[in-house]
Amino acid sequence: MPSKRWNAGKLALWLLPLGFLLAFYFFPMGKIVVLALSKWRQNGLTGWDWGLVGRTAGFTFYQAALSTLLTLVLGMPAAFLFSRFQFRGKGFLRVASTLPFILPTVVVAAGFNALIGPHGWLNLGLMALFHLEQAPISIQNSLTAILLAHVFYNTSIVIRVVSTAWEGVDLRLENAARTLGASPARVFRSVTLPLLRPALISAFLLVFLFDFTSFGVILMMGGPQFSTLEVEIYIQTMQFLNLPLAGLLSLIQLVFCMGITALIIATGRSLSVPVMPRGNQENLRKPKKAVEKLFVLIMAFVLIFLLVLPLVALVGQAFFTSNDSGWHPTLQYFRQLFVNSRRSIFYVPPIIALRNSLLYALTASALALGLGMLLANAARGSRTLSRLLNWLVLLPLGTSAVTFGLGLYLAYGTGYGALRWYPLLIPLAHALIALPFVLNLIEPALNAIPANLKWAARTLGASQRVVWRRVELPIIWRSALTAFVYAYAISLGEFGATSFLTRPDIPTLPIAVYRYLTLPGALNYGQAMAMSVVLLAVCALSMFVVDRLQLPVWGDNQRKAQPDA
Amino acid sequence: MLEILKIRKYYENQLLLDDISFTLGADETVCLLGPSGGGKSTLLRIIAGLEESESGQVLWDGQDVTAEPAHLRNFGLMFQDYALFPHLNVSDNVAFGLRMQRLPDDDIRRRVAETLALVNMSAFAKRRVTDLSGGEQQRVALARALVPHPRLLMLDEPLGALDRALRAQLSEDLRAVLQQMDIPVIYVTHDQEEAFAFGDRLFVLHDGRIIQSGSPSQVYNHPDSLWLATFFGHKNRLQGTVESVDPLRVRTDDGLIACGPQPREFNIGQKVTLVLPSDTASLSEQVEGALKARVTDSRFQGMGHLVDFQLTDGTELTFFFKDAQKPGSLVFLALEAQSMLCFPALGTA
């Protein structure tokens, strides 16, 4: 059949995404490898601070493992809550638990700061209540703060992945086990848990990868004494200008991330959830027994305290100011965003950062969507070239944001022509980071279109191009729109890669929040809160759009994952 | 005029279509009959240009169209699961092919309306196809395949997804519509009744080959092979040895059985398998030339009763009778010699 043969048009569609990957992924990664190898060639194994490398890698593993376990400890009962119980306020709780996933790290950091930081509501409240001189809760710059933020972030992933699987577990299987004499605990251990295993493994690996590549949280919540591979790459590049060591760390990071991603893909392929597709809400019940009611109440309280209160505190801190006579509403932090203060750390008023971020996000999401569509399209089919592309595209999935940033910085951020390139680098990096999410939504949607539909269109006189435009695109538009919205939200909040590529005259909003958050003074603090609220509002709006249009949600088809910074 | 020449196709290293060749007349309807998974749909897709064959040619009016892209062939294909576009309503689905031909909107509207009227779906023009029942979807799919006036219409199990009652009704409607069209039709089915009802000619596909072709009655009454006889549902078999060839008589453990003329020749002493169609036995008063049998079960089947018998040597046979028979009773079965099918016994052909 001619349509399966390669012609010039098809080859171009295949070469375009390949060219993009070559230029903006493989070339930058090659730069990192060359950098690390050049020092290696000079000094061999000596000349590296292996102690630092070992300590950093060790801590990265340690905090990721601990964070993941804690996230599962909270996420499992939360997934049970959502997949088995029907209760008032569930819709709100579900949206509230989905939101953290796309929130920028700076917003999360600002939110926890607003709640439990030295000037946080909790401390201020306790100080007022017990007439204390100092803040009683001091978890700023501690491992606890890091763990808390990671749990906040990733509980939504566990809930999403595990509760989807749990909802699908056929209740009749559990009932059958009960009639065969199994106690509820035994039913869970012998029936439910084995059925959930694929989802649990999938959630564990995903959360581990996200925690492993955590950057913003460590930098902002952990302070200078904690350093993961991501943070150390940043410090070695930006503070010590030790590019070879940054390169070596990036290589180590790359190897680990690829390994975890390979595991995610391998398990995702081999472990399909062995459950019956059941009617909607068939497995849901209202909590009736006292113990069930108590469980729902406690879980709702914990989730609200952990997932909702930090954001409420953030909004509160942005709109209220305190003095001796108490709290007063104010808009001064927002007004200040439009002022180009002489003492400002940027050359422009902070609101320009918002404009930059919105523009970058628009460019990045359009780029990611276009690239994702081309890749998904070109990687279909069984031809050798398609299979090759399918493998090549997996590599960026296992690359962390900071590694992207460093690679692009090395490849295009210095030397001749760097100046002209610069404004494009950030959206390029964001597009690469968002690409796995885009593919995760587009690929399954495309693959779900029955071949017959395309065949029918072909026999009715439609060329391949027309089939794409008139049949496939109209069918996958919801997924494409979701992909665009996610890419937009990811770009808007991206911090890791951006921190390598940003310049003081073209800051993005997360970079601005970070700078303001690390400066002393109530006005800076307030402005950081105000900017975080703007970011929060845009992200919440994105989720609202996805929810209202009944678009698919990321994680429903969980094939690939890529950490945000 | 369609001509298929030596189409060969492998599927996962197994030979699926083994040098299939046939021709199709100007307004002829041929039925491709065969069990599921036998490559019938693949053959249709190869003819449509949707799939590549390893070798062979598809010719139209003597011109080789094997390399022509599917969308330029103007061969209509109606899919088993209909493949209606879920994002388009009924009339937009039907209009799809006309839009590909870039016809003026007025023409498209008119032809869509005409074709929807032809399949009795005018009232559903603005409905979403996902809201239609199976039978309604089938009509829309037929209208969509017909409206661009294809040079050839291919129907892939068009009634296969419907329940029995609906199938009978839609089968009548489909026949009526196809009779109004002056185009060649290839009708693919695994259901012999459908094949008999629609086909001017029948091609039976088995093991990648066309094992028999001819008019439906010819193929049904004179299946060339034991496999085809079994495929047609003739399950009653007796093993025996040819005792005389003119007239053909076969000695079995249950007596001497007379057969009508057969399409192939036999030799005296040859081991054969007799196939007894289930509507060819009657109760006999005479012992001579009849089979002694015990009724083991009798069950109501709508138009009559299916009765199971056991012969003295243990062979089990099932025949169709108008009246019920009493289980346990001993009877004598007279067999219609004319309907009896005789094949060389397996492994001796």
Automatic annotation (TrEMBL), chain A:
Q: Predominant location of this chain?
A: membrane
Mind telling me which PROSITE patterns this protein's record contains?
ABC_TM1
**TM segments?**
60-83, 95-115, 135-153, 199-223, 243-266, 294-320, 357-376, 388-412, 424-442, 475-493, 525-546
Print the keywords alphabetically: Cell inner membrane, Cell membrane, Membrane, Transmembrane, Transmembrane helix, Transport
Give the highest taxon in the source lineage.
Bacteria
The GO cellular component terms are: plasma membrane
Q: Which InterPro entries match?
A: MetI-like, MetI-like_sf
Q: Which Pfam families match?
A: BPD_transp_1
For membrane topology, the record states: Multi-pass membrane protein
GO BP? transmembrane transport
Q: Give residue ranges for domain ABC transmembrane type-1.
A: 57-264, 354-546
Q: Any keyword Protein biosynthesis?
A: no
Which PANTHER family does the record associate with it? INNER MEMBRANE ABC TRANSPORTER PERMEASE PROTEIN YDCV
What family is this? Belongs to the binding-protein-dependent transport system permease family.
Write the protein's name. Answer: Thiamine transport system permease protein
This protein's species is Pelolinea submarina
Automatic annotation (TrEMBL), chain B:
InterPro entries under this entry? AAA+_ATPase, ABC_SmlMolc_Importer, ABC_transporter-like_ATP-bd, ABC_transporter-like_CS, Mo/tungstate-bd_C_term_dom, P-loop_NTPase
Source superkingdom? Bacteria
The UniProt keyword set, sorted, is:
ATP-binding, Nucleotide-binding, Transport
Has UniProt tagged this entry with the keyword Lyase?
no
The ABC transporter domain covers: 2-232
Organism ancestry: Bacteria, Bacillati, Chloroflexota, Anaerolineae, Anaerolineales
Query: Would you tell me the protein name for this molecule?
Result: ABC-type quaternary amine transporter
Supply the PROSITE patterns for this chain.
ABC_TRANSPORTER_1, ABC_TRANSPORTER_2
- Which GO molecular-function terms appear in the entry? ABC-type quaternary ammonium compound transporting activity; ATP binding; ATP hydrolysis activity
Q: Name one Pfam family in it.
A: ABC_tran
| EC numbers, comma separated | 7.6.2.9
